[in-house]
Fold:
Amino acid sequence: MLLLLLGIVLLHVAALVLLLVSTIVSAWTVNPSTSSDLWQNCTTIFEQYTCGSADDGVWIQAVQALMILAVIFCFLSLFLFFCQLFTLQKGGRFFLTGAFQIFASLFVMSAAIIYTVMNNEWVPQTDSFGFSYILAWAAFPLALISGLIYVILRKRE
Structure:
C-alpha cells in the first residue's frame, strides 16, 4: 500500500512540475533567433538578447489564466490529498482530490488548445512549438490519469 501511495504522489508531483515548467519557462514557440512564452517574447539580434512583454491580446490572457489555475488546482489537489489521507474515514474515496486534479488537467488542456488555435494568427510560419508547449500537453494526461486514480482510490488502514 505504501508503494502505491508513493507512486500516486510521484505521478502527481511529476504533473505539478511539468505544469510549473511549462508556465514559467520561455519556450512555447521558438526559432533560431526568437522564443516566446506566455509572458514575454525574446529575440537575439547581433548577439544582443532582448525581451519584451508578450502580446496583450485577450486570448493570451486566457491562456495565462488557465495555466495559473491549472498550477493552483494541481497544488491544492496535492494538499487536499495529504489532508484527506489523515482525515478520511476507512473505505472513503478521495473525490475532492480527484475533482481538483481533473479540473487542473482540463485547465491545461484548454490553455494548450487556445494557444494552438490562436498561435497561427500571430506567430510566423518559420516558428515551431517549443518544449514548454510540449510539456503542457504532457502534463494534461498525467494530471487526468492521477485525478482518475484519486477518484477510484479508497482509503485503507
